[in-house]
TrEMBL record:
Catalyzed reactions per annotation: L-aspartate + L-glutamine + ATP + H2O = L-asparagine + L-glutamate + AMP + diphosphate + H(+)
Residue ranges occupied by any Glutamine amidotransferase type-2 domain in the UniProt entry: 2-214
Pfam families, sorted: Asn_synthase, GATase_7
CDD domains with a match to the protein in the record: Asn_synthase_B_C (cd01991), AsnB (cd00712)
Pathway(s) per entry: Amino-acid biosynthesis; L-asparagine biosynthesis; L-asparagine from L-aspartate (L-Gln route): step 1/1
Gene3D superfamilies in the record: Glutamine Phosphoribosylpyrophosphate, subunit 1, domain 1, HUPs
Biological source species: Fulvivirga kasyanovii
Protein name in the entry: asparagine synthase (glutamine-hydrolyzing)
Entry's EC annotation: 6.3.5.4
EC category: ligase
Molecular function per GO: asparagine synthase (glutamine-hydrolyzing) activity
Domain of life: Bacteria
Similarity section: Belongs to the asparagine synthetase family.
Keyword terms, alphabetized: ATP-binding, Glutamine amidotransferase, Ligase, Nucleotide-binding
Length: 628
């Protein structure tokens, strides 16, 4: 696991010193080693920088940038099946001098060109300079586990694993994109391909960029898309056959993620996803696997006792730590450094703390991310389908009637938790009558209308992957369409961003074994009735887990992995809202209106306000103070 950064400067105003500065800004991602490649050719200056976290082949033979023939590469990630690819390439006459997957990547590229990526099982972002063909290629893995940003303006392209590297280059202009700021406020993350800055993008998962050095042309190409697999005909197999095949794929994927030359552990929440990873791996190991959990004194948020029950039953080497309001206060000012564009998932604090805890004993940690998105674990899927089941005419009538009445004028109900927002969401859902649009609205913490009220500048609401329903064919029922969309939105830009930055901030490699592309390719072709079966969400995964852990241990209400921010920010952490959402401060910034002050005052006075709205705005304010 590593960090990469660099530039292709057609103006030739860059330097090797700038390249080193950009690269060293990512030292947390790769504290073990660093290297740079700088070339001034006929067309541009090409700079490739690498920070290394040594996981495979700890020797100097794994050093990057790495070269072979006309290729030079910087690579962040892991190719788990590199040994099998090595055998294929050896049969074709290639020789290897290291045990590094980077060398395999280079020689696979020499053999198969851009089709090499089709052979990879893994997570990756890499940039490859092809000297003979005078081009630079930028790749990101299928699910988007590993990040890759790029900035292209006025003849200079910058790239990096994290935005913070761009601030070290004189060509970077840090201009906030207000359309994208509105997206952040709505979702609490920036949906791909957008970023908080103008001219700055995330490379979309399953895509690569080709930059022609001769004419400066930058083209994006798709090599994999989960939608293509959802659009395949559904498999005609029994539920039991589906369970059996899924378990085989899970075992294979999990085993691949244990390949390492350093100690490996697991994040264990006690929920089905992390328990599946732990149970299957512990069943194949004679040694106790190290597991890690974060808990809280506030019992409504505390999963630690359930995680310990699972750990005790499976016999893991378990470590837990309890998180307090003080821990959160200590971390708050680190968040803009860790998440260097606004990111407001309310579990960033426990995710960072569990990463920090794991790093004391291991250098690699597996998580259960993607179980909910692939196997239909979230209640939002049920709500999106159920809300739009009633006849279309009735939905239109209800939406129209709701538009005539302000929610503030409805007695009793207007005192309920977050009522105005929920009222407007239902009106919008029934207006469009689509489960996919319903999930988009459900996913917004601040609605588009509210964002317009809170921001001083108007904005264009940009198209995102929430708006791809038309790309999913009629072979998909509403639930399978929702799963495809969630894979490309919430999973990608919320969950994977959260874990990547939190783990990398402490020099820990995070691995998401359920995101092995073979799993989603298979499960996407299963009927949705296998995923929510007899009213039970995530049925296939639960059936598998119950083979290893008794249902009595697992059968409990699902708790989200959240910090008790709603409690702490009305008490111990109240001063943050008073300082960062101060009226004078907001007026001087010119970004937010007085409506934000009204929202803050209503929340602090005890009214039933959704705390996530204020958390999103606070996170932006903390970010702006650090980076602007």
């Amino acid at each position: 696991m590593c960090g990469i950064a660099g530039f292709i400067d057609f103006n030739k105003r860059s330097s090797e010193d700038t390249l080193r500065a950009m690269t060293d800004e990512l030292i947390h991602r790769g504290p073990d080693d660093s290297g740079v490649f700088f070339e001034d050719n006929d067309h541009a200056q090409v700079g490739l920088g690498h920070r290394r976290l040594s996981i495979l082949d700890l020797s100097a033979l794994g050093h990057q940038p790495m070269q072979f023939q006309q290729y030079t590469v910087v690579f962040n990630g892991e190719i788990y099946n590199f040994k099998e690819i090595t055998e294929l390439l050896t049969q074709k006459g290639y020789k290897f001098k290291s045990h590094s997957d980077t060398e395999v990547l280079l020689k696979a590229f020499d053999c198969w060109g851009t089709k090499a990526v089709d052979h990879f099982i893994g997570m990756f972002a890499f940039v490859l300079y092809d000297k003979n063909n005078e081009e630079v290629l930028f790749f990101r893995d299928r699910a988007g586990v590993k990040p890759l940003y790029y900035y292209y303006k006025d003849g200079c392209l910058l790239f990096a694993s994290e935005l913070k590297s761009f601030h070290k280059h004189d060509s970077f202009r840090k201009e906030i994109d207000h359309d994208n700021l509105a997206l952040f406020l709505q979702y609490n993350y920036l949906p791909a391909p957008y970023s908080i800055f103008k001219y700055t993008f995330k490379l979309e998962p399953g895509h690569f960029l080709r930059l022609d050095l001769k004419n400066k042309d930058l083209q994006q190409h798709k090599y994999w898309d989960v939608v293509d697999h959802y659009n395949k005909p559904k498999l005609d197999i029994s539920y039991d056959e589906a369970v059996e095949e899924t378990e085989k794929l899970l075992m294979s994927a999990f085993s691949y993620r244990m390949v390492s030359d350093v100690p490996v552990g697991l994040f264990l929440s006690g929920g089905y996803d992390s328990t599946a990873v732990t149970a299957l791996l512990q069943s194949q190991s004679t040694e106790k696997i190290k597991t890690f959990t974060i808990g809280y004194e506030e019992q409504a948020f505390n999963e630690a006792p359930e995680a310990k029950k699972v750990a005790d039953y499976l016999g893991t080497d378990h470590t837990e730590k309890y998180c307090t309001a003080k821990d959160t206060a200590d971390i708050l000012h680190k968040l803009p450094q860790i998440y260097d564009e606004p990111f407001a998932d309310n579990s960033v604090v426990p995710t960072f703390l569990v990463s920090q805890l794991a790093r004391t004993k291991v250098k690699v940690a597996l998580s259960g991310d993607a179980g909910d998105e692939i196997f239909a674990g979230y209640d939002k899927f049920n709500r999106a389908v159920n809300f739009t089941k009633i006849p279309g005419v009735a939905q239109s009538l209800m939406s129209g009637a709701m538009g005539l009445i302000s929610p503030e004028n409805i007695p009793v109900l207007n005192k309920k938790y977050n009522f105005s927002t929920r009222y407007e969401k239902m009106r919008e859902i029934w207006k469009y009558k689509s489960p996919s649009h319903a999930m988009k609205i459900i996913s917004q913490f601040i609605t588009e209308q509210e964002a317009r009220k809170y921001l001083t500048k108007d904005f264009q609401n940009k198209k995102t992957y929430f708006d791809i329903e038309s790309e999913l064919n009629d072979g998909n029922d509403p639930l399978n369409k929702l799963l495809a969309i969630d894979y490309k939105t919430f999973l990608l830009d919320n969950n994977l961003t959260k874990v990547d930055r939190a783990t990398m901030a402490v020099g820990l490699e995070g691995r998401e074994p359920i995101l092995d592309h073979r799993i989603v390719e298979f499960v996407s072709q299963l009927p949705s009735s296998y995923k929510i079966k007899d009213g039970v969400n995530k049925s296939i995964l639960k059936t598998i887990v119950h083979k290893y852990v008794p249902e009595a241990i697992m059968d409990r209400p699902k708790k989200p992995f959240l910090a008790p921010l709603t409690v702490w920010f009305k008490d111990e952490l109240k001063d943050y809202y008073l300082e960062y959402l101060d009226e004078t401060r907001l007026k001087n910034d010119g970004i937010f209106t007085k409506s934000v002050i009204e929202l803050r005052n209503a929340y602090l006075s005890g009214k039933e306000i959704n705390h996530q709205k204020l958390w999103n705005i606070l996170i932006f304010q903390l970010w702006k103070e650090k980076w602007m």
